Amino acid sequence: MIKEILKTLFLILIMYYAFLFEMSFLPFFTFFSFLILFVILVNILEDPRGRIGLFSAFFLGLMMDVYSAHYIGLMAISFLLVSFLLKLILSRYVRVGSLGWLPKI
Amino acid sequence: MIYDGEIEWVPLGAETLAAQMIEQKKFGAKIFRLVYYGGVSEKTKRVFLTWLIEEELIKLYIGKKKRKDAYSELIYSKCIDDFLKISCLFRKTPWQMPAEFPLGRTRIGNPIILRLNGNFIRSMKYDEVFRHLFLYFVFFLMLVYNQSMNSVITKKRILVIVFLVVCFLIINAVSKDGLKNFIYSKSASLQASLWDRGSEEAFSRQDQEKLNKELIEENQKLLSDLASLQGVREENESLREALGLNLQNDYDLVLGRVISKDILNDTILINIGSNDGIKKDFPVILSGKALLGRVIDVYPNYSRVMLITQKNNMIDVEIPDSKSFALSKGEGGLKASLDMFPRDIELKEDSLIITSAMGGNYPAGLYVGKVKNVKKLDNEVYQVAEIEKSFDLNTVNNVFVIKIAEIYND
Hints:
heterodimer; A: mainly alpha; 0% strand; B: alpha+beta; 6 helices; 18 strands; disordered C terminus
């Protein structure tokens, strides 16, 4: 249980700093969001029953809400739902493969 | 009903429309028809119509309803297609109740086309909410059709989502701005140093030789412009003295510093907020009076600035070379275009674009950009062009917020 919490906190921390980097440093070079790509890839490639994709989608959405003019939670919930939808579709119709090396939360 | 004139009102400043009306009267027109287009907010319409009534330029047919409601009735009862064709008859005195409110755009004589104030950007936040609600609807449809997928969407997970939604609703209702301000204050120093570092890196990567050459050329051009304007300046000053005008105290400015840029939208965060006297809708400029945007959200110590390039952000602008007005329209992705420029007037490449005071949103004379790639399409009433914006995000570190006393926009 403690391990799971630590892993989640680690994921949040990494994503938080990556997000700040993307907002304050990367706009000078590109408008492409690597974090969004990361979240999409994790959601597609991980086991549909896994939770990393859900967590990462939720936290990315939450940070986008906080650091934009949106209502807090709007993008967070939406990203979470998109993640759920992706997992539903993937588990039912598609099998891309899974990332065995991703730590399970 | 026969009209003596017609005024097409594309979201605009009230003063100029009234001025045009007065102008029309000189030519003997007494009855006008006012056509509202979509995108004009209720507040703008009310401000405008109230102003016209106060100035006794019109008397509105308000029926049995109260005046405020009557505007809504007039405006929304005749909504057709994607724009509103509203007929609103008015003349100075004596007022006679019109027999009908005809629809359509009957043109009698040459219509006066006004292209003024922008800022009829629809509420970005509400649009977003509706878009997201649609997503929620799709999600629940999926739930209904995938009840067997218990491994992915369990009851526990649904409860968590519902709990999160409730929490977010409470947070937004109680202290959204306070929470955001707190989080910004924790990350501001790191973001500021990242922004500086990024700016330095980006600058060092530019082709210095080419940049120098361009700057020298531009400097020479500016010097020649300056020389030619010297005479005009002296003349201006002597006229100003003669008229007793003092225009030296241009703006009350507050210096701010950029912290970050939004990933999805053309908005930036600056480190001054309501504690520094910043209010929503205050214009934001760079040194040299280059317009950057306007404040859309204010927190105690931070503010969010919507850049002029934010999608659908419209600004009333003037092109002094052509002595004409147009709209600057944000396209998103740090791009903007010039819209609604009259077809019959020549629009030169590299003409300067400055803000116009007609809309009442920005002070006049702020530098918006230069005209590029003029396009005159056969089936369009107006010319369009790209705008080479006045700022380069790579070099934007400090900004100035103009504290203006009164704002008329929506």
